[in-house]
Protein backbone atom coordinates (compact mmCIF):
# COMPACT_ATOMS: atom_id res chain seq x y z
CA UNK A 1 0.00 0.00 0.00
CA UNK A 2 1.22 3.44 -0.89
CA UNK A 3 0.56 6.55 1.15
CA UNK A 4 -0.95 9.42 -0.79
CA UNK A 5 0.96 12.67 -0.79
CA UNK A 6 -1.16 15.59 0.45
CA UNK A 7 -2.20 17.91 -2.32
CA UNK A 8 -1.33 21.58 -2.01
CA UNK A 9 -4.97 22.55 -2.58
CA UNK A 10 -6.12 20.41 0.33
CA UNK A 11 -3.40 21.96 2.51
CA UNK A 12 -4.63 25.46 1.63
CA UNK A 13 -8.20 24.37 2.37
CA UNK A 14 -7.14 22.92 5.72
CA UNK A 15 -5.32 26.12 6.73
CA UNK A 16 -8.29 28.24 5.62
CA UNK A 17 -10.69 26.07 7.60
CA UNK A 18 -8.55 26.27 10.76
CA UNK A 19 -8.27 30.06 10.46
CA UNK A 20 -12.04 30.26 9.97
CA UNK A 21 -12.50 28.31 13.21
CA UNK A 22 -9.57 29.64 15.26
CA UNK A 23 -10.06 33.40 14.81
CA UNK A 24 -13.61 33.57 16.28
CA UNK A 25 -12.57 31.07 18.96
CA UNK A 26 -9.61 33.22 20.01
CA UNK A 27 -11.80 36.33 19.97
CA UNK A 28 -14.30 34.58 22.24
CA UNK A 29 -11.59 33.47 24.67
CA UNK A 30 -10.09 36.97 24.77
CA UNK A 31 -13.53 38.48 25.37
CA UNK A 32 -14.21 36.04 28.21
CA UNK A 33 -10.84 36.80 29.83
CA UNK A 34 -11.54 40.56 29.64
CA UNK A 35 -14.93 40.07 31.34
CA UNK A 36 -13.32 37.86 34.02
CA UNK A 37 -10.69 40.53 34.68
CA UNK A 38 -13.44 43.10 35.13
CA UNK A 39 -15.22 40.83 37.62
CA UNK A 40 -12.23 39.68 39.63
CA UNK A 41 -9.73 42.47 39.02
List the helices and strands and how they pair.
Elements: H1 8-40
Describe the structure.
This protein has 41 residues and is mainly alpha-helical. Helices cover 80% and strands 0% of the residues. It contains one helix and no strands. It has one helix at residues 8-40. The model has no long low-confidence stretch (mean pLDDT 88).
Features:
41 residues; single chain; mainly alpha; rod-shaped; 1 helix
Q: Using only CA atoms, what is the Rg?
A: 18 Å
Describe the sheet with the most strands. none
| Protein structure class | mainly alpha
Mean pLDDT: 88
Count the DSSP helices: 1
In whole angstroms, the N-to-C terminal distance is 58 Å
Poorly predicted residue ranges: none
- Helical content (DSSP H or I, runs of 4+): over 70%
Looking at the structure, what is the overall shape?
Answer: rod-shaped
Strand content: under 5%
Secondary-structure element series: H
Tally the beta strands.
0
